[in-house]
Specification:
Helix content is 97%, strand content 0%.
């Protein structure tokens, strides 16, 4: 009976050690998952900022292009008929 009790205690101790190791490994895995999640969030924010910056650049360029086109059209209307009349008078 004493030997059986001693064997049971050894088995219990061995299982406790394995349990502690498994819990430690699980805690480490959870920590790494949290780190990965945090890095993923940081990357998402970085990507979002770059996309927004790129969109802002495109909008600014489109506005500038539209303004330049409008100026060009206004200048053509102002100077277009004058240059046609001067060409016809010759």
């Amino acid at each position: 009976m004493k030997q059986q009790l001693a064997e049971s205690e050894q088995l219990l101790e061995a299982r406790n050690v394995k349990l502690a190791e498994a819990q430690k490994a699980q805690a480490e895995a959870l920590r790494k998952q949290r780190e990965l999640d945090e890095k993923t969030r940081e990357l998402d924010v970085t990507i979002e900022k770059r996309v927004q910056a790129g969109q802002a650049d495109l909008v600014a360029k489109a506005r500038q292009d539209a303004a330049n086109e409008l100026k060009s059209q206004v200048l053509q209307r102002r100077h277009g008929p004058t240059s046609l009349h001067s060409g016809c008078s010759r």
